[in-house]
Input
Amino acid sequence: MSGRAVLRCWAALMGLLALTTGLAFVPLGAAQLGVSLVIAVTKALLVLLLFMELKGSSGLVRVFAAAGFFWLLIMVGLTSADYMHRSDHRTAIDQIR
Amino acid sequence: MTDDVLTFQYATSDQQREAVTLGMWAFLATEVLFFGALIAAYFNYRIWFGAEFIAAAHMTKVAFGTVNTAVLLTSSACMAMAVNTYQAGRTRAPVLWLTGTALLGLAFIAIKSVEYYLEYQEHLVPAIDFDVGRYGGVAEIFFLFYFCATGLHALHLLIGISLVTWLAIRIGRGRIDRNGSTTRIIGLYWHFVDIVWIFLFPLIYLAGRSG
Amino acid sequence: MSRPPNESYLSAKIGIRSWLLTTDHKRIALLYFAAITGFFAIGGFAATLIRYELITPGPTLGSPDFYNRLFTMHGVIMVWFFLIPSIPATMGNFIIPLMIGARDLAFPRLNLLSWYLFVIGGLITLTALLLGGLDTGWTFYEPYSTFYATGYVILAITGIVVAGFSSILTGLNFIVTIHKLRAPGMTWYRLPVFVWSTYATSLILVLATPVLAMTLLMLIAERVLGVGIFSPQLGGDPILFQHMFWFYSHPAVYIMILPSMGVISEIVPVFARKQLFGYTFVVWCSIAIAAIGFLVWGHHMFVAGQALYASLAFSFLSYLVAVPSAIKVFNWTATLHEGWIRFDAPMLYAFGFIGLFTMGGLTGLFLAALPIDVHVTDTYFVVAHFHYIMVGGAVMGYFAGLHYWWPKITGRRYPEYWARFAAILAFFGFNLTFFPQFILGYLGMPRRYQSYPPEFQVWHVLSSAGASILAVGYALPLFYFLWSILKGERAPANPWQATGLEWTSRSPPPPNNFDVTPTVVRPPYQYQRGDPCPQVDSD
Output
């Protein structure tokens, strides 16, 4: 990366930081989490692809980089299957009392 | 730390460099899952507790958090400059950029320490004198997450600062192979610590701020 | 190089420093063998006491609290300090570089660090157990383990966390080695199945263990700080601990079985003198088991209070994970068909594995069904199920591999008839120990109970009798392996007439494995009418 490219990337990151903090004070309701995560993912991708040089790396390196995040998604996703449905309509077997 | 001499199990330097790079990314994958477990627990509690959990986030200090994020992102830019200038053949420039990286890292730690101290004064530290009556049990769980996550992050940052300082000294003495992997993989570690914070920041500081 | 022509990795350097500071993967493998054998003996001793205790319905050896500490010790040691490292750290370390034509692993010093972390972690946990242990069971469920359990919970768990880092580094080392250090001509589809299995195992080691580390650290935090992250006092959820714990611990059981499956895939073609049937299916099934294995952990929590919707999802996915394992069993069986079968000791252990693993796997499907699990969960049915897989499967695979590669590792033959006798004894002892436990569980005997109603006694007595036979079956190899090292006949490079790269090197191998880096020309397990076609052409 050239010095200028680093500077541009840094400026983009600062801009996204300002955006995410600013939007936190805007009443977005349920979309708040989603918006801040999308911005966080964008910042992370900038760091991963440019600063960590994934853009010019081999496919194998990129798979290694992606694997951890992908597995984390599995963990968050499947556990949330429990927490989102805990308060579902109770079936007969749960109504022991 | 490798001084980038070709060791006997590798046939070429390229092979060694690729192997070391893969090794570092594999290690970072483990770190993603290490911090990720904490973040997964956070997410599940956020779903489970709902509004009470989000309300607890309101008590974090968003100004400190935002400044710290800016500090860390800038330190990553400095690290990127250090790696690039060193590979481009210069010696003084990378040492200066690395020093900048380390100093910004220390600035982060300093700001965090002040933040922790203020939280201590406000009785927001779990197990020490958290004011459960005033804030609620769910808030104590949230703040336990906060201290664990930011504490572990700070620990990783301190390790990073030590590595960067060591690297700066070694480069200054001309003891690091320019075509080797050491500088790059320390850079990867530093950027990763930055990425952890990029995700911790909205989860800790930006929830429950509106309305 | 001015080295003696017959130098081996054993004779190259002598003295204790050359062993404790070695970076040679073969020596590190032996260091692991020593540590793991020690832990197996301790865990086995705890098992002996458990089975002795359970001969009578009432207390025999001590209080119920003592019994709780005993089975906790057995579980903790066997899971983390024997089964998880067993094949990867010993045979993986020794054989993988030889199998792929490399001179060592990608990061030899990291390998040594892994061993030290393992030993230090083991000593820490052992200290906790010898000081009085803990009574939480190896699963450390909350809030009991944090707010109510007495004993050395934090110390024991610290040792496990340290040993966990050992596994992570080992897995990382194997992954990079297999990607980067294969000899010329060794394409992915020419790799022996043991390498693919170790790769799949390493994926799990790297991706699952960090979650355990964090979970246990949070447990320690809760116990030390007294703040209930997972406990109801502040509104926390004990089930969240179980989610995080089993996210690691279920893939962990695949860490324990995949390497054994890899060993069996090596042994069956050699002793049937036939190409492995369905190589491509077998190797991709290893990857599939590792991947799908991450999606099924909730089947340990069907009765814990998890949402029914989640339980349904986990039940379905648990049925799915059985498919690649079954495919492997079919492929081994098809390999045997019309082969020239020899009943050497490694093959006897392999037969034992195939039969017992199948039974264990099928009973796993019983447990994956929600209605059945509600009745047999936390009974001896579950205990029997996982012992069929872990002991009938994983440990049999360990002994199979140990016998198979013994000539390569030590340069000696073991006494064949004693070995066959030990294998058969272990098989009978195993079945007598654990089959009655299926019946016990079905009849309603809960697990982790010291006292039980008298009508269960007959089954417990049978089980304990079996355990004493199994113990002899496991103890015998200790004796004849020791004899083999001291007085055994010298082994040639390829005593089994197998095709892999490891058999082209001397027995025992020289320090750098190969005098000349081999070039691989054909896939593994090629036999021409019973004669082996080695993967490299000899010059």
Remarks:
- Chain C has one domain: 17-532.
- Chain C touches chain B at residues 97, 102-108, 168, 172-173, 175-176, 179-181, 206-211, 213-215, 218, 221, 225-229, 233-237, 240, 243-244, 247, 512, 517 (CB under 8 Å).
- The CA atoms of residues 177 and 378 of chain C lie 41 Å apart.
- The domain at 17-532 of chain C is CATH 1.20.210.10 (Cytochrome C Oxidase; Chain A).
